[in-house]
Amino acid sequence: MIRALLSRWTVALPLLAVVVLACTWGRTLPWLGVVIAASALVGAVLAAVHHAEVVAHRVGEPFGSLVLAVAVTVIEVALIVTLMISGGEKSATLARDTVFAAVMITCNGIFGLSLLVGALRRRIAVFNAEGTGAALATVATLATLSLVLPTFTSSKPGPEFSPAQLAFAAVASLALYGLFVMVQTVRHRDDFMPVEVVRVAEDAAAAKEHGGDRPTPRAALLALAMLSIALVCVVGLAKVVSPAIESGVASAGLPHAAVGVVIALLVLAPETLAAVRAARRDQVQISLNLALGSAMASIGLTIPAIAVAGIWLDGPLVLGLGATQMVLLAITVVVGALTVVPGRATLLQGGVHLALFSAFVFLAASP
């Protein structure tokens, strides 16, 4: 039985990634080592997407959309806190840059790509405006409380929260995220379900892809375990290759903030692939649940974790966004609201969000 499991690429790749991570962690790698680590990272991403879809198929929606978003975000938060504790003063803006990058990637990159794929598939991408609008409103509120207000408070000099303000932002973020999860999974589940019925042939294809009808509890537990392993490897290998990314960014003359964007792109790769695959199956609502849920979890879990870690952090904690970043956040919220209200989108809406994502990436490289 063990040999049969190891023969599956979805099991073999995460285990191979574990070996690569153990061999490369804490070491200065030559170019060949960086290539091997990057290849293992890609394999772990592909395996994570597969196992997340198996688990989601077992538990059903909207719980399935939470699996990958929360799993990735928890590990991402652990990585941020670890780097901040060991990074000293140079990591003062790490939490802000990472969270903002995650919001831009999810609310413009993944969001726009999902709409684009859905519109190419059926000319018009249809989704549930009530649930998507509620998710976008929660993301906008969390981002404003945690990333915009520190720029305008006066208790401490600079774009920083005082300890009491940070505690309030942490409690408010966690409470809002918990409230949203309760609404999404219990009281108003229908608002987050796909509004279109997928054709029978596509259902059969999806079932075949997952290895039958509904996965057994044993298969779902195995997938959950392999998903956890794969996600740990994704974040760990992203950290392993980050020195090579930093040196490449420095040699190209790019600002240090570009490193955070690249690493955030690597960490969010599983969610991106899962969202695109859902959109290809005409399940645009699931794609949007993944995008906005990931943005929400990134803020709602990161800020409380940073507030607790602040007990041990000696340096400053800069959370306030700059003027350019606030403009990008504001236009993202406005355009997102206009996209969500009709409950349907064309190629144009997808292209607009991808243009905003491109602007974010360009300005991160050339501020």
UniProtKB/TrEMBL annotation:
TM spans (from-to): 32-51, 63-87, 99-120, 132-152, 164-183, 219-241, 253-276, 288-312, 318-340, 347-365
Membrane topology: Multi-pass membrane protein
Keyword vocabulary terms for this entry: Membrane, Transmembrane, Transmembrane helix
A Pfam cross-reference name: Na_Ca_ex
Cellular compartment(s): Membrane
Ranges in a coiled coil: none
GO molecular function: potassium:proton antiporter activity; sodium:proton antiporter activity
PROSITE patterns per UniProt: PROKAR_LIPOPROTEIN
Span of domain Sodium/calcium exchanger membrane region: 31-185, 223-363
A cellular component term, taken from the record's GO annotations: plasma membrane
PANTHER family, per database record: SODIUM-POTASSIUM/PROTON ANTIPORTER CHAA, SODIUM-POTASSIUM_PROTON ANTIPORTER CHAA
Protein name: Ionic transporter y4hA
Protein's organism: Nocardia bovistercoris
